[in-house]
Backbone:
């Protein structure tokens, strides 16, 4: 499914409308996107197609398997895949790491995030160029942010 | 937990956190004012070895500001993420051989009470109470302490309604 020179991402959110909106926004920015509303099916798909994906974007609360479990299993399959979790919580990646050391993520995106912001955060989080800053904050009404190490 | 002044509220909240840490529990201090550096640094300075406890993952401090504003709109989505996070942390702590018990001090409902947003407050407290029952059914020992202003609730005749959403009513005693 991945086209040459396109970054690819697996989007997992049990709310179909949200998954589709995210998919469209990322596609418009040049991403190859596959979306799932069932995390178990998403994991099964990833097991067979892990080489095709650079990144995963997942919700936390989903029936069948939560985002934390999904992250652990995805990372076990492909440790270098970039993982972004969407959450309503104001918690930093470093705080999350301290209380949930087994959940290795590359960024937290606070919900609700405007689509342009979500795409920007994922773009920045997956940029291969080394960044000179450690955190990136967005001054916006729907303050979304991503924490880089 | 009913308090009569801010000093009582803050002291008793920190006492719960310190007691929890002493017992090896995960202590969570969740406050609408957590992003206020001056406020939170005063509170944290009274928590036993707070830096060490944070670094070891025994103490989690985070902001409920978004919770508060979304609760005003009747939106409890952040609370549901909070619940999911707590349950996940408990699983991880059990796997690491740590205590599975958690003490949470959360002041979102308190802030709603203080600003006389009583219906919104009851909505939040009802959700916490249902969550508490679910945790009990699942043998999850997660205790949530919600401070509330005694005088404001009494003057506005909401004390009973808000008390009804709790398993236990305590009056703050700092002495």
Residues:
């Amino acid at each position: 499914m991945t086209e040459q020179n396109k970054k690819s991402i697996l989007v997992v959110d049990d709310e179909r409308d949200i998954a589709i909106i995210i998919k469209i926004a990322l596609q418009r920015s040049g991403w190859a996107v596959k979306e799932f509303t069932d995390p178990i099916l998403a994991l099964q798909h990833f097991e067979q197609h892990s080489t095709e994906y650079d990144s995963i974007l997942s919700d936390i609360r989903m029936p069948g398997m939560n985002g934390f479990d999904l992250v652990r299993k995805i990372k076990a399959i492909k440790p270098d895949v970039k993982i972004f979790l969407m959450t309503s919580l104001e918690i930093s990646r470093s705080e999350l790491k301290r209380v949930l050391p087994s959940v290795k993520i590359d960024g937290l995106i606070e919900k609700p995030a405007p689509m342009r912001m979500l795409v920007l955060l994922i773009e920045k989080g997956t940029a291969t160029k080394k960044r000179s800053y450690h955190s990136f904050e967005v001054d916006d009404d729907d303050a979304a942010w991503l924490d880089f190490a | 937990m009913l308090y009569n002044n801010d000093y009582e509220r803050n002291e008793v909240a920190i006492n719960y956190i310190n007691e929890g840490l002493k017992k090896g529990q995960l202590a969570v201090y969740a406050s609408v004012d957590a992003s206020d550096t001056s406020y939170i640094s005063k509170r944290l300075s009274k928590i036993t070895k707070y830096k060490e406890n944070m670094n070891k993952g025994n103490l989690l401090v985070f902001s409920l500001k978004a919770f508060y504003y979304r609760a005003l709109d009747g939106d409890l989505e952040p609370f549901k993420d909070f619940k999911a996070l707590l349950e996940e942390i408990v699983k991880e702590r059990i796997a690491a051989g740590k205590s599975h018990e958690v003490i949470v001090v959360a002041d979102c409902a308190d802030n709603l009470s203080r600003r006389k947003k009583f219906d919104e407050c009851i909505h939040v407290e009802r959700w916490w109470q249902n969550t508490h029952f679910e945790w009990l059914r699942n043998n999850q020992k997660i205790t949530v302490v919600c401070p509330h202003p005694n005088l404001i609730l009494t003057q506005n005749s909401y004390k009973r309604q808000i008390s009804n959403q709790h398993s236990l009513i305590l009056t703050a005693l700092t002495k």
Chain A is about 35% helix and 20% strand. Chain A has one domain: 8-147. Chain A touches chain B at residues 60-61, 66, 68, 87-91, 95, 98-103, 110-111 (CB under 8 Å).
